[in-house]
Backbone:
């Protein structure tokens, strides 16, 4: 088939008319031709001239996602550049025209999904149409919420060319675990293929985890983006960072349980107890400052989540704001305050 894009004006019209077109998105029949004909658009799309193999997406629930992602990515991966693959005009056309039957079944607008945004507006239906057919999800989530783009980008982010036996091994794992897909794509790390692949590999090697453990793992890993430049990570460094973060996540879960038990025996509340137990001594605070060859442990002030950080020429490149700080010094990652617990 030849890849088509929606015209800019046609895309704008579809988006602005979402509230009055909600009934159409429940239609069994493809309606986009008649819609634009009635609106006076003779040509609402244009051909890019790019030829790709025909792809028949399997209609069904989330169990079909992996197979569909592989088929779509295999057809498109050598034909689209990153700019084209990021263009909503392509994915909106495919969702409304080429794969209408797939979309109305897989992403029926009257059925809530775990992946849907928390609806703050008046109409949940309008919100679902916006995120599933367009790029109306919040920043960072749009590509993996739009019904067709998510198939391509899920495979793009998890395709491992070094895995000669099965380069789609992590794609299958990624899409078969709803908790993992949802919590990882909420984070900025999902935009870094090297780190996402490493995070998934480490998680799969560890075995089954509880949902809260998975969420904490990706939250902790993502928070490192405030000090670590993700795009600078080699595959080895990304894997090391993921392993250390998973270890620290489990260590902190155990400490939280222990701290709650200690606090319950005294008159002090959990937060007071934690503040005492984690307060660095004056002697410790006089230790050496952070340099480019330092190994750090940092702690989030309000939750006591601890994170490892390795700084060096062949390790993790960090943002320069930490250089010169010492144990006991505080710094901010976005709105969260962190404290340096150790420097080696």
Residues:
């Amino acid at each position: 088939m030849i890849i088509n894009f929606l015209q800019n004006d046609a895309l704008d019209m579809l988006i602005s008319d979402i509230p009055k077109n909600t009934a159409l998105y429940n239609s069994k029949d493809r309606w986009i031709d008649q819609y634009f004909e009635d609106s006076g658009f003779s040509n609402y799309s244009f051909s890019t001239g790019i030829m790709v193999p025909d792809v028949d997406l399997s209609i069904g629930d989330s169990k079909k996602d992996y197979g569909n992602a592989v088929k779509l990515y295999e057809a498109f991966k050598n034909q689209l550049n990153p700019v084209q693959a990021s263009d909503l005009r392509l994915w909106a056309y495919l969702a409304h025209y080429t794969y209408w039957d797939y979309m109305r079944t897989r992403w029926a607008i009257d059925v809530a999904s775990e992946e849907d945004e928390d609806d703050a507006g008046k109409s949940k239906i309008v919100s679902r149409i916006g995120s599933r057919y367009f790029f109306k999800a919040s920043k960072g989530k749009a590509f993996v919420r739009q019904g067709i783009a998510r198939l391509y980008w899920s495979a793009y982010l998890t395709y491992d060319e070094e895995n000669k036996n099965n380069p789609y091994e992590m794609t299958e794992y990624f899409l078969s675990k709803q908790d993992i897909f949802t919590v990882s794509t909420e984070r900025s790390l999902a935009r870094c293929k090297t780190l996402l692949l490493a995070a998934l590999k480490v998680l799969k090697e560890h075995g089954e985890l509880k949902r809260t453990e998975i969420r904490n793992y990706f939250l902790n890993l993502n928070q490192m983006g405030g000090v670590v430049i993700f795009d600078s990570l080699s595959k080895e460094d990304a894997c090391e960072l993921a392993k250390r973060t998973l270890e620290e996540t489990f260590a902190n879960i155990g400490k939280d349980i222990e701290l709650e038990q200690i606090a319950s025996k005294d008159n002090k509340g959990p937060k007071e107890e934690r503040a005492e137990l984690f307060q660095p001594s004056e002697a410790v605070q006089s230790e050496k400052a952070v340099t480019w060859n330092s190994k750090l442990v940092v702690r989030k002030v309000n939750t006591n989540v601890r994170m490892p950080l390795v700084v060096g020429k062949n390790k993790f490149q960090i943002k320069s704001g930490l250089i010169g700080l010492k144990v006991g010094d505080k710094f901010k990652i976005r709105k969260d305050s962190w404290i340096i617990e150790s420097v080696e």
Notes: Residues 235-265 form the longest helix (31 residues). The CA atoms of residues 198 and 236 lie 9 Å apart. The first strand starts at residue 2 and ends at 6. The beta strands are 2-6, 45-51, 295-300, 306-310, 330-333, 336-343.
